[in-house]
Amino acid sequence: MTKGIRIAVDGPSGAGKSTIAKAVADRLGYEYIDTGAMYRAVAYGMLREGITCDEADREKLASFLDDATVDFRGGRVCLNGEDIADRIRTPEISMMASNCSAIGIVREKLVADQRRMGETKNVILDGRDIGTQVFPDAEFKFYLTADAEERARRRLADLEAAYEKKRAELKAEGLKGKKLKSLLGPAPVFADVLRDIEQRDYNDMHRAISPLVRADDAVLIDSTHSDIDDTVQAFLDVILRASDEAAGTPCCAGCPCGAEEAK
Ligand code: DC
Questions:
Q1: What domain range is 39 assigned to?
Q2: Which of 3, 32, 98, 221 is close enough to 25 for a disulfide, judged by CB 3.0 to 4.6 Å?
Q3: pLDDT (tens digit, 9 = 90+) per residue, 66-95?
Q4: Tens-place pLDDT, residues 108-147
Q5: Does residue 261 belong to any structural domain of this protein?
Q6: For atom 3 of ligand 1, which residue has the closest CA?
Q7: Does residue 263 form part of some domain?
Q8: What is the pTM assigned to this prediction?
Q9: Distance (Å, rounded) from C-alpha 28 to C-alpha 7?
Q10: C-alpha to C-alpha distance for 228 and 82, rounded to whole angstroms
Q11: Which ligand 1 atom is at minimum distance from the Cα of 98?
C-alpha cells in the first residue's frame, strides 16, 4: 500500500477553510475531505434521533455511532448512505456539531474514519485537529484564520444567500404572507452570527479533547484582508516550492507556484 501526501488545514469556524482547501485540491488533483461536514453529519443524526450531548444519553449515542456510516459520495457527505449535504449548514446544526465534537466517542469514530480515508491517497483535509491529532505527520500543515468580525460578515453573506434561495423556492410553491414568513423564520442578523462564531471559537479552543490549536509546525495564513484567489495562491506557494525543493528542481517564472522570478 503506498502512502499518499497529506495536507492538513486547521483553523476556526468561518475562516474559509473549505473554500480554500477545495480550490487547492482542484489545482493539485487531490481529494478533498471536509471533516467538519462529518461532525455535522453526526450532529444531524443525533438531532434526528433525539440524542443529546448529555452524559445521560451516552449509551444511546454509542449505539447510534456503532451503526452510523459517515462518508462522502461524489464529494457530498452522507449519513448511512443518505445524502444530507444540503441539510447540515443551519445555525442549529453548527452549534450541535461544535458541542458533539467535544465528546470522546464521537471524535474516536470520526478520527479513525479520517485516517482510513487519508491513508493511501493524496488528500487535503480541513478541520480543527488535522495537523495535531489526525495526521500529526502530515507532509504539509496550515493554520488558516481571519478576524472574528470578518468571518461573521462572510458567514452572514452565505446565510443571507440561503435565506433568499429558500424564500424564492417557497414563493414558487405559491406561499405568501404570514404562512411564507412563518416557514422562512427570521432573517439572519449580523450580531447573532458574530455571537455564534465567538461561542464556537470558545468551545472549539477550550474543549478538553483535541482543542483547536495551531500545530507548532503549521504555516499560519491570515485571510482577513485577502480574497480567495490570493489565499489559494499563498497555499500553493508553500506546497509547490517545498515539492520543488524536495525534488531538487527549482521552480521558475510561469510555473504554477506563482513566483515571478526563477529561484
Ligand atoms: O468546520 P465546520 O464549521 O463545518 O465544523 C463544525 C464543527 O465540527 C466545529 O464547531 C468543530 C467541529 N470539528 C472538529 O471538532 N474537528 C474537526 N476536525 C472538524 C470540525
A1: 6-233
A2: 32
A3: 999 999 999 999 999 999 999 999 889 999
A4: 999 999 999 998 899 999 999 999 999 999 999 999 999 9
A5: no
A6: 13
A7: no
A8: 0.87
A9: 11
A10: 31
A11: 10
CA–CA separation, 177 and 187 (whole Å): 15
> Which atom, in ligand 1's list, is nearest to the CA of 88?
4
Domain total for the chain? 1
Q: Which of 87, 88, 98, 206 to mutate to test the pocket of ligand 1 (most atoms within 8 A of CB)?
A: 98
User: Nearest-CA neighbor of 17 among 260, 218, 254, 246?
Assistant: 218
**Contacts of residue 67, Cβ cutoff 8 Å, sequence gap at least 6:** 80
Q: Give the atom of ligand 1 at the shortest distance from the alpha carbon of 40.
A: 6
With respect to residue 253, please indicate whether it lies within any of the assigned structural domains: no
Identify the residue whose C-alpha is closest to ligand 1 atom 11.
98
CB 205 within 8 A of CB 212: yes
> Within a domain: residue 124?
yes
155 CB near ligand 1 (under 6 Å)? no
